[in-house]
Amino acid sequence: KAGVTQTPRYLIKTRGQQVTLSCSPISGHRSVSWYQQTPGQGLQFLFEYFSETQRNKGNFPGRFSGRQFSNSRSEMNVSTLELGDSALYLCASSLAGRGPISSYNEQFFGPGTRLTVL
Amino acid sequence: GNSVTQMEGPVTLSEEAFLTINCTYTATGYPSLFWYVQYPGEGLQLLLKATKADDKGSNKGFEATYRKETTSFHLEKGSVQVSDSAVYFCALTVDEKLTFGTGTRLTIIP
Q: What pLDDT is attached to residue A103?
């Protein structure tokens, strides 16, 4: 079974631009979560989508948004890029969620998209 | 809110040494606890997990026990190998949102 895939793997943008990152979950997984990883702030939760609906949200400004399609693929968008948005963006998928953690909602991570903002 | 405090790194050990990476947590509710590992240029891989008090998670020679009384989930391995060199993250979840520690970079020298 193929793992979580993220595209592109590397991206260079300039301040003020916008960017869209893509995540394809493991086949059959309906929940997709996004995380930002930076040296200063570590790993921080951005948001989670389930059945095309945002179900959980972290503490990021409105410039960060996402969506999920009917095939569970997800995209995240960052508008008006700032230098501080340079990070590794990780996507994770799981079968579903809610309730006690089990193999049913264990999260599997993709390799990430490394975004550099100049 | 939820938080994870993890042993600061980096940690450098010789091959076959004993490893401990400390992790303590604060959580509302009853969390599940995890250790993830990140190899260079890769995403996170789940190393082990524990879902209730006194559970012991284990994988690839690594172990961690969910200690509710001390709110801890320390990672241990009896004999580390060069291939264990990576960054290790302690994490918890009460719902689907994972809260991570800052990570500990482990380097094993032959």
A: 46
